[in-house]
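Can anyone check this?
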Amino acid sequence: MLAFGIEHLLFAGAPADAMYPWVLGAPVWNYAFGALLVIVSASVGLRRRAPLAASALGTTLCLYALSIYVPRIIAHLPDPGPWTRILGIGSPLAAACELLAMSGAAWALALGGSQSRAGFPAGRREWMERPGRLLFAGPLVVFGLQHFLYTRFLAALIPTWIPWHLFWENVVGTAFLAAAAGIATNKAARLAALLLGTMFLLIVVVLHAPRVAADVRSLDEWTSAFVAVAMSGGAFVLAREQR
């Protein structure tokens, strides 16, 4: 979150088409959103009013996704080949799903922490934690479908020293769908979240780190890497809250 905030502040005036899909091109908004991300990330990292900061982050990201991307998704529905346009890499739905997953992780952190759970019966704690789990799990279905619809494109991103590219793409797609089912239903949710967080961390090391090193001036490469880091951290947060 801190990295995203710094990006917004450094590139606030960049044209819209030069920014990552879910970063707007309006300088005023980018400054405001960047400052918010810096503040909430510092609060969470330093454990200063962390539940409040995480709640603010989760609410902001969710509202952002719903207000900016739902209209764009609806606008694409009448187009020919809607699955390609809606589920495509970098599509409005894919961008919204990144935000919603991070929103779910923030809510899990805010509502599932030991301090937030204190004094609540088990049934009430489950109700409190469910929105975060569902917000995080839902986008995993989209990510999984993308890996099956765009297998060859995504397989081409895998480093050449790794064999069986298509096989590993199918494994990753299946892992996303399995993790989504486990987290959403709360069946083996802790194991599913731990494995998902580990997978994202491996993707950062194996895929994103070399791509960033090869093109250190690319905002897209840096942001893609930080998205994967955030998803890994979000999965570990969900795993920690499962008992």
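Reply from J.R.: I decoded it. The chain has one domain: 2-241.
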